[in-house]
Fold S-adenosylmethionine:tRNA ribosyltransferase-isomerase.
Amino acid sequence: MQLHDFHFELPDELIARYPTEQRSASRLLRLNGTTGEVNHSNFFQLVDFLEPNDLLVFNNTRVLPARLFGKKSSGGQVEILIERVESDLEAIAHVRANRSPKPGARLVLEDGSELEVLSKDGALYELKLLTNDWHGVMQAVGHMPLPPYIDREDELSDKERYQTVYSKVEGAVAAPTAGLHFDDELLDKIADKGVDTAFVTLHVGAGTFSPVRVENILEHKMHSEWYELSPEVCDKVKSARQKGGRVIAVGTTSVRCLESASSQGSIQAGSGETDIFIYPGYEFQSVDALITNFHLPESTLMMLVSAFASRKHIMNAYNEAVAEQYRFFSYGDSMFITEPFKGQHPEINSLVGDT
């Protein structure tokens, strides 16, 4: 299977630069991954498509104001995107400048905080603050790290809208965007129907936007992200299935967390790094249905949803979404894959043949 197998044409005007006025007012495309049937509705109607024994699994990570601006000691401008905070003083980050700073270089941020470049490993820099701490710096002068395709400056409203209403654990540099459609009113209606909820944590990294640069997708190296899943969540997953309910992952990050915790065949509590790469042919262990946004062409997220509902059904659904003028990507509309694809993925033979 080749990278171009996951390509689709998207008119620029369908990229959502701003969210809907109300979170749950976005549109919802329902796809049956078994039959390929597509239906259209609104996200606030989601409760009508849930059953009392279902379990919704959310990612409660909270996005850091991780984009910072400053200058080199020479006066040149720099832009820093924190990938991961290692301690109060040290962080791993992407740094953009006319000339890449070398280890030992000093940088000064907008609030006057100074930092030193400790090392560089590939595209990532290890930075150490010499004054202040990362939390204080980001709260003072940090900007919300909107994705590259939202080609505008971040605004005050993004500090709230680029977070889920249930975000809790700081550490992400990108939002788990499928959760952006939920508001408190909808969550209350879901609870009133008897649908259970659970929360995992996966800190989304900037690598989620990294393009796949190889034609044979098996040669792609996935980025690593930190996750945590509690014994309580494991018990809820097992209980839902015993009752005949579905485990519904809200977002691909919840999928990555649940499936990473299920890599030994049964779901296990724990925390650590995951670089799980899910593409057609993957056998899902803990996820029965998926709520997700519309993803970039040729992205690893397109491969993940194609593994869940088959590439054929996903591509047909995306083409219909384009024809129906759905809004795409982080601030766009949503898809509910109500059942997974059953049977052999027809593209697997070509995948094996290309290795």
About this structure: The chain has a mean pLDDT of 94. The chain is about 20% helix and 25% strand.
